[in-house]
C-alpha cells in the first residue's frame, strides 16, 4: 500500500510518501520514498514562539512546492503531461480552497501538469494542533483526494508520535536510494510518554489502536516550558535544543568546578497521580533570575538545573506508571524526546527498575513534527481498522484527544 501523508499541525509543512506492507502480527515494513519538511522556525524565531496566522499563511504557500519535491524524489512525476480536471471537480476544489487563494492558484497551476501518482490513500493530521494550520492541510488533502479519486485517512498527531517511537531502521533490506523502517516487536500492555511543545501525557495501550491517557499536563507542556525558559535566559527559539546545549556546557565545566548553587522545584513529582505541571517551575526560574545578570555561566547553570528538574519529574512519573500498570514496554515520543538527557535517564531508570521492560524511543529524525509518522499511523489504521472516512466529515480539531 502506498500512502501520501500530510502534516501541518504547527509550524512544519511536511509531506511524505511511504510504501507499506505487512501486519503487526507478521511484521510491518515502511519504505520511505520521500520525507520533505519545510520548517518555519526562522519566521517564528523573532517572536519566541509560533504565531497561528503566520503558520497558516506559510502552510498555504509551501504545501504545493513540498508536494512537488516529494513526488519528484519518489519519481512519481511524469513531465509534459496534462491531467484533465472536469469543470465540476474544479468548482468543488475552488469551494474547498476558497479561504486559501494562494494555495488554490498553485494547486490549479501544478496538479494538472502531472499524472495521477500511484498512491492508494492520503493521510492527513486533523488534530490536535493549531486549528488554522490544521485546516490548510486538511483542505489540501481533500482537494487532492477529489482530483485523484483516493480515500483520506485522518490521523491524530499524538498517535503519530506514539508510533514513531516504534520505528526502527531496517538495514536488512538493501535500498541505496530509500530508507526502510519496521515496527519493532512489542508486547502489550505498554506505556508511552509523549512530550512535545503542546503536549505532555502518559498513555497506556493494551492493544493496537487502543489508548488510555492516565496523566497529562495541567498547564504548560514540557516543550512549551523549555521555550519560555529559553526566552527568559536570552536563548533562541526553539528552546529545547538551546537549553540542552547550555546544560551540556555546564556539565563540562562542573567537572572542574565545585558544582552549582541554584536548585529548582520538581513540581508534582510526589503528587501520587500521573499529572504534570510546569508553570510553577517556569515561575521559579523567573524569580531566581531577578536581580542577576545573564552571564554565560549563569545561563548554563540555570539551563542545566531546569533540564534536570523537568527530566526528574518526567522520569519518576513514568517509572511509577510502569510499575502500577505492570507494562512490558515503555515508549518515548514527541519533540522533547530528542533531548538526550531525558532519553538516557529514562532508559537507565527503567533498566534499573526492570531490565525485562522494553524501552523504545523515536529515531531522532522522527522526534519532531513529520509526515512519516502520520503515514505510519494511517497504514496501521488501514490494516487493523479498515474504516471508511467521508472527506466531508473530516474537520480540524485543535484539542483532539487520543
TrEMBL record:
Gene3D superfamilies in alphabetical order: 3.30.420.40
Cofactor info, note text: Binds 1 Fe(2+) ion per subunit.
Domain of life: Bacteria
Location, primary (coarse class): cytoplasm
GO molecular function: iron ion binding; tRNA N(6)-L-threonylcarbamoyladenine synthase activity
Places the protein is found: Cytoplasm
Presence of keyword Acyltransferase: yes
Names of required cofactors: Fe(2+)
UniProtKB keywords: Acyltransferase, Cytoplasm, Iron, Metal-binding, Transferase, tRNA processing
Any one Gene Ontology BP term: tRNA threonylcarbamoyladenosine modification
Binding sites annotated in the UniProt record for Fe cation: 157, 161, 369
Record bears the keyword Acyltransferase: yes
Domain called Gcp-like: residue spans: 33-80, 114-375
Enzyme class, spelled out: transferase
Catalytic reactions of this protein: L-threonylcarbamoyladenylate + adenosine(37) in tRNA = N(6)-L-threonylcarbamoyladenosine(37) in tRNA + AMP + H(+)
Similarity-based family: Belongs to the KAE1 / TsaD family.
Function: Required for the formation of a threonylcarbamoyl group on adenosine at position 37 (t(6)A37) in tRNAs that read codons beginning with adenine. Is involved in the transfer of the threonylcarbamoyl moiety of threonylcarbamoyl-AMP (TC-AMP) to the N6 group of A37, together with TsaE and TsaB. TsaD likely plays a direct catalytic role in this reaction.
Official protein name in the record: tRNA N6-adenosine threonylcarbamoyltransferase
Species this chain originates from: Candidatus Lloydbacteria bacterium RIFCSPLOWO2_02_FULL_51_11
Lineage: Bacteria, Candidatus Lloydiibacteriota
Primary gene name: tsaD
